[in-house]
Amino acid sequence: MIIDTHTHFGDPAHPKHDIYRTAMPETYKTLAVPQGVTGTIIVESGCQIEGNQWDLDLAADDPFIVGIVGNLDPFADDFAAYLERFAANPLFNGFRLHTGYFREYSGKPRQTKDDISDKLIESLELLRDKDLALDFSGDHETLGYAAELVQRVPGLRLVLNHIVGCRPINGKEPNAAWADGVRQIATWPNIYCKVSALVQMTEIVPSPAELEYYKPTLDVLWHAFGAERLIYGSNWPQIEQVSDFATAHAIVARYFESKGSEAAEQYFWRNSKAAYKWVDRPS
Questions:
Q1: Is the pLDDT assigned to residue 47 strictly greater than 70?
Q2: Most CB within 10 Å of its CB: which of 22, 23, 34, 173?
Q3: Going from the N-terminus, what domains does the chain have, and what CATH number goes with each?
Q4: Is it the case that residue 159 has pLDDT exceeding 70?
Q5: Quick one: pLDDT at residue 104?
Q6: More confident: 142 or 81
Q7: Given this model, what pLDDT does residue 22 score?
Q8: 0.90 exceeded by the pTM?
């Protein structure tokens, strides 16, 4: 079993979508199923609130979709009502928090614990109480903010997206500040990390296909989070701007399979099950 926890579906012609090209499940499956992928979690098909419903409607007709990470604004007065609405569907796994929200809300370029409002904490407590997860989109300079969130909301499950932006991956030892931040954030047991968008972090087009180019970065993640808290995600179709699905998949498959079959199984689906509690859907 392989669950890809980070795909974006939609059509740029759709008024509620925020995606650079048409990308639908049937196209994705032609690329992913040959690599052994058995299901996916959609992350934010749209930039508007009804994009969540579009995702859920798409999933209703397709058992290949095992979950949805939605788009909600935790600073909005109507957050609780929308959370109640979408969380009523067992396919809704939570929502993603962007650093862009923080800039808009606080007017500051980076986030510190002083930026955390009572409203945000209240919203995240509601999320936790519904046993849902928070995806976190930021870079290593926002990791202190992420740590403060899980400290202020005990029991919150938080999933870091896209290896918290380690750039550039160049085959050498990664940015020391990023590595230090990863080691510190990993001390929180309820924080997971998606090894997603890896090929995009090279800032090279096309991205290198050799595992050795990515290994120093992957080693930092492995030693910090271990076998239990790293999660597979492709970031399709965005990765196609620099690589292709099969190449990107082969890089991480080679790395985690080298750690043993149990570690590979944890990475490819068991850890995401623990983080998102996605539903098993017979095809």
A1: yes
A2: 23
A3: 3-276 (3.20.20.140)
A4: yes
A5: 47
A6: 81
A7: 77
A8: yes
